[in-house]
Structures are given as structure tokens and as C-alpha cells.
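Researcher: Please translate sequence to C-alpha cells.
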Amino acid sequence: MSSEGSRPYSGTPAGVNPGELQVVVSGAGQAYEIRLLGELDMSTASELREQLTGLAADGPAQVTVDLSELAFVDSTGLSVLIAGLKRLRQQGGDMALRSPTPATRRVLEITGLTEVFSIS
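Model: Translation complete:
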């Protein structure tokens, strides 16, 4: 989804247009990695929500979310991560966050989510 003009270019990864999000899932069995590239916000969060819901529905899974190429996250994006964590834990799984950008790490710190998620 594109939302041209809604926000100035903010260092979105190559191949991802500003205002868009790519969700890349890899892994099998019970261990998965989700790479987020671009912007996780109200207009893009549904794809991540669907992926996390699907992984939780398959039973206990260990999910690592790579945030190294996430240029922006808003409250909707954070709520999708929290809901995914809750679903996974209800199924006996868990979710960790990896390599947040400095801006994303700051948002996680301000909101207290560094106390909720395992972050490496």
C-alpha cells in the first residue's frame, strides 16, 4: 500500500516505497523469522497481523521479528506486535524482537515494551 505524500522519505530500505511494508517470513516447523522492511503503521499493519495470526494458529511457534530494516512504527504497529506475542504465548510459543533501528528502539523504550519483549 502506498501513501505518497503522507510522510517525507525516512530511510525506507531499497526496493520498498515510502509508506509500504514488506513482510518476509522464513522458517519451518516451530521456528520462524519475520523480516519487516519499510513502515509498520495503520495502513500496513494488516499483513503482519495476518502472518502472526497464521503462525499462532499452527500451534506453538518461536518467532523472531527482525526490525533492522523497519523505518517507522506507530501505535497500530506496536499493537499488532503485542497481540501477536499474546497469541503465540497462549499457544505455548513466544516472540522476540531483533536488531531494532535506533528510532524503533527508542519507541520501544518510551512505551515500556522493552520490558515485555525479549530484544537482541
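Researcher: Any highlights?
Model: Residues 1-10 have pLDDT under 50 and may be disordered.
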